[in-house]
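Hey L., structure's done. Input below.
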Amino acid sequence: MARINSLLGGGGVSWNYPSTSDNSPVLGLPLVQTSNTSATIAWNTNEPTQGQVYWNTSPLVFNEATGPRQQPYVSGNLALDAGGMQTNHSVIISNLQANTTYHYLVRGVDNVGNMSMVWPKTFRTN
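Output:
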């Protein structure tokens, strides 16, 4: 412990993150509008995030993140919110099959890697 402290410049080290950068974003409930071959998923966040939607016809699979600021693995197809870092998100998923159930998950990642997600849900195309 003494060696680690000497390498770090003496006594204990204080890691002070601004409170806004170390909080996970808050995601609103997503709204889904469907047609025969597409779905639009829209939601809001309390801070700018990169919006992500994972989707597939089979249930999504998750693997836990193994370290700080690492994002958990999610199976399926990924669609990004084209607007980049923002608070109002809308993702359009095209080329879907008509009258089909899809599993989806919404996720938001802020500029320092904090992540929140809405647990998987389903929608059905017309």
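Residues 2-7 form the longest helix (6 residues). The two ends are 63 Å apart (CA to CA).

-- N.
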